[in-house]
Amino acid sequence: MSQPSITLLELGTRIKNAVAAAFDLPVWVTGEISDVRMHRNGHCYLELIQKDEASNQVVARMRATIWASTFRIIKPYFESTTRQSLSAGMKILVRGTPEYQEVYGLNFNVINMDATYTLGDMARRRMEVIARLQAEGVFDMNRELELPVVLQRIAVISSPTAAGYEDFLDQLRNNRQGIRFYVKLFPAIMQGERAEASIIEALGQVYEHEDFFDCVAIMRGGGASADLVCFDGYDLALHVAQFPLPVLTGIGHDRDESVADMVAHTQLKTPTAVAEFIIHHAMDFEQWLDQALADVTSAWDEYLDDAHDRLERAAGRFVPLVQQHLERQRGRLMRFTDQLGHRTTTALTRRQVRLHQAGQRLQGATGQRFGREQVRLLMLRERLQRASLALIKNRHQHLNFLDEKMRLHDPVNILNRGFSVTYCNGRVVKHPSDVKSGDVLTTLLKSGAISSIVD
């Protein structure tokens, strides 16, 4: 037996009629944006949620649409009031009507928006961030850092294409004092949902090289005030407050002061103002140096004048004392000269007597020694003559022996005794292996030569 049923379209139609009957007039609804998309045709599509305050869990969710004709009116009003664009995490109060369509389901059509509600919620959250930083004891940490006497090595966090960054560089490079600055850019996204995380990441990169820098400058050039929401975030403010280098901000807005501005060491309105502050800070140090040099020079001149006066007074007292001392020393020198002349004459006389006596002794000893050496030379000459004659005789006998030996070994004498000598190709044959079959041999005898062929 089939159960009574209706079609899906009939169900959708009943829901559509019920919703239309229940909400015949527009209603105000509060919610939090979890997603926002701008369509190229001008429509704005939102996803609204509600979270449980205790558990922070989502307890309700609904799609919402602001049609292009309405969004053209709501958008400038909302942004001029809150100075922010619609973004995820923002709480809003909207007026409209729920509508159910059989194909697309439930949707809330927005026809109006109360920007003051969002502004109040933003102010509340901003105060909560400030109170949390103060409770954690970090709100004044960066402002309590001592600013270096010269800010010459600057880490800049900005978009590389920002006009404000270019103005900042131009101001530093073309300062009239000719002061040179070192600037290193750490690129970051400066607006939108990813801006806060990007700036924090850039701060982390600067922290890795903190010893190379004197300060950090966070700046953005121009842009809508609605893009400043990231500078009110707790995470960014916490990192700025606890950063070990002084942080200068030039975020480029005049009406509001962001939480990042509050916790930074020095808040300035624009990147150009940051550059001017850095230049003037260096000029102040330069002026201090000039004044210090002038003070030291003046003090030194006074010291030299005083020392010159004291020296002249001391000289007036010292000259007579020196003259007296010189007179005493001159008298002592003259007495010493007289004594030295007498002593020198006496010493020279004694030396001459000793030298004469030594000469006489040397002359006698030399004559005796000369006689003995002359006798020794005569004896050596006789021995040398005898030894030379004996050596010559011995050498003569040896030469006679060698001559006789050579005569006995003469080949002619050997042949005369009946011996023969055999040659092969001009070489003496000493062994049978020196010849081979067919060689022609020549044998020398006492009275001639014999030729033969080896068989």
TrEMBL record:
OB-fold nucleic acid binding domain: residues covered: 7-113
Reaction it catalyzes: Exonucleolytic cleavage in either 5'- to 3'- or 3'- to 5'-direction to yield nucleoside 5'-phosphates
A GO term from the CC aspect: exodeoxyribonuclease VII complex
EC id: 3.1.11.6
Primary location: cytoplasm
CDD domains (UniProt xref): ExoVII_LU_OBF
Sequence ranges assigned to domain Exonuclease VII large subunit C-terminal in this UniProt record: 138-451
Keywords: Cytoplasm, Exonuclease, Hydrolase, Nuclease
Localisation: Cytoplasm
Coiled coil: none
MF terms (GO), sorted A to Z: exodeoxyribonuclease VII activity; nucleic acid binding
Keyword Iron-sulfur: no
BP-aspect Gene Ontology terms: DNA catabolic process
Membrane listed as a keyword: no
InterPro entries linked to this entry: Exonuc_VII_L, Exonuc_VII_lsu_C, OB-fold_nuc-bd_dom
Top class in the EC scheme: hydrolase
Family: Belongs to the XseA family.
Known partners and oligomeric status: Heterooligomer composed of large and small subunits.
Job description of the protein: Bidirectionally degrades single-stranded DNA into large acid-insoluble oligonucleotides, which are then degraded further into small acid-soluble oligonucleotides.
Protein name: Exodeoxyribonuclease 7 large subunit
Name of the gene: xseA
